Structures are given as structure tokens and as C-alpha cells.
Amino acid sequence: MRVLRRARAGRRRRRAHIRGAVLVPLACLPGLAAVLALALCAQGVERAVTVRLDRPVPSTRPAAVDPAAAHRAPRPRIVLRAAWLDPVTRRDQPPPRYDDKVVAVFVHHTDSPNTYRCADTPRIIRDLYAGQTSGARDWDDIGYNFLVDRCGTVYEGRAGGVDRPVTGAHTKGFNHRTAGIAAIGTFTAGVPVPRAMTDAIAALAAWKLGLAGVDPRGRTRLVSTSGLSRYRAGTTATLPTLAAHRDAYMTSCPGAALTALLPEIRQEAARLQGRPATGTS
Questions:
Q1: Taking the model in full, what pTM does it have?
Q2: Cα–Cα distance measured from residue 154 to residue 79, given in angstroms and rounded to the nearest whole number
Q3: pLDDT band of 29, cuts 50, 70, 90
Q4: Burial bucket for residue 223 (CB in 10 Å: 0-12, 13-18, 19+)
Q5: Distance between CA atoms of residues 34 and 134, nearest Å
Q6: Is 238's pLDDT higher than 80?
Q7: Alpha carbon separation from 269 to 20, 64, 109, 119, 214 (Å, rounded)
Q8: N or C: which end of the chain has fewer CB within 10 A?
Q9: Would you say 179 and 106 are in contact if contact means Cβ atoms under 8 Å apart?
Q10: Rounded CA separation 202/207 (Å)
Q11: How far apart are CA 187 and CA 111, in angstroms?
């Protein structure tokens, strides 16, 4: 019996020695590796264990915010070209040209009669298109990106997509990175400008400029591409982001009456973009 007890005691001492030999190096292992090693020992290393250490760690940083998105106004209702351009009038034209974005809007008037029925607007735009794409001008398309009638209806003008930065042909020297909005009619001094029209221009400018985060009350730098504008070709001009045609070209367009309302239109456009009110612009 003594011999048996001695043998058992010897086996217990050897097991304790082995456990100590295992635990000492485990104490030197860093956190997760030590835990895994202990688990392997406990299971007698019966099977391989795959540990994923490449899982992405959730970021605590706030998501990036597009600064332009903060002041985007709702898109107004826009009547597309199909409403006024029929197959008889349509002419072959090259593909649309685009800029990177729109940073300014030029307001025009069409210098046409004011006493029209709004139901006749498609015909009026069709006549403007015919006049600009034939004869002495012979343009490839109507020059204005948009047209607005006296009832406040907005029409797509130049082809290429209303939500894209289509290069127009509305302001010589400054057609790049701009959009042209034409008020249908003649608005010289003393001529009343319909409120529906100015509200529509404000809504359209707020939306179009808002796509690039541009404040309608601000100013922007544009490079002239034509010496026939108010600025020599290559000159950098600082112009209102919601400008009159005559700010960039030697003309009275869009007429004294509509030009006088531009500060009010700028403020309304800024309000529609959700910007805080300021003094007159």
C-alpha cells in the first residue's frame, strides 16, 4: 500500500509540474492570445480553431456631410421639351455639352409681347426656338436653359437634362457653369412683372443653385470666354450668383422692371434654400 501511495503522489507531482510549465508561458502571452491558448489546453488541442482578427471596427466618427446638401431647395415643376418641340420644328443638333456644375444663374427676358394666353406658351417657345436656330443666328438649339411664362409655369429650354449642368447659349462670354432663365415677355421700365413669374424664377434659381450649394445672394468668379461681353476674353469677373443678363453683356436685358426685382428674387430664393434672412442683396 505504501508503494502504491508513493506512486500516486509521484503522478500528482508530475501533473502539477506540467500545469505549471504550461501556465508560466501563458502569462507572457498578450490578452486574446492567452485566452485562446487556455481554451486549447482545456480542450486537449482536439481541433483547430480559426480566429477572425480582421473584422472592421465600427467607426465612432460622424458620417461625412455634403455641404451642398444643407441648402438644397425642392425642385419646381418643370414642363419638358416634348410639350413645345414638335417633329416639324425640331432640327438635327449635336449632343449637349456639360460643365461640372452651375454656380450662377442669368435672368433674361425674351423681348416678346406680354399679352399672351398661358395656354399659348408652347407655341411661343417654339417660335423662339425657330428664330434662334435659323437665319442669322443658326444656333444648334434654343439658347436658354429654362423659360418661365406669366402664369409661373417653368419650361425646359435647351436639351441635355434639367438637373444637369448643361452649357447654354444665353450670355455671351459666360455660358460655362451658368444657367439661363428667360422670362417670356418684355419688362422695360414701368411694365408690371407678374408675381407668379418672379416666384417661379426664385424657386427655379433656388433649386438649380442649391444643387451646388450656392447662395443666390452671393457673388462668384467666372472667366470670360468672349471679348464681346463686358469683359475681355480670359478676364475673371466677379458677378452675382443670381445675375441680370446685362451684368455680363452690353444689353438692357432683362429690362429695368425685372432687374429692379432681382434683390427680392434673391432673398426669396435664399429663403427657399433654408438660409437665414439678411439685408437686401
A1: 0.76
A2: 6
A3: very low
A4: middle
A5: 84
A6: yes
A7: 79, 26, 19, 27, 11
A8: N
A9: yes
A10: 9
A11: 8
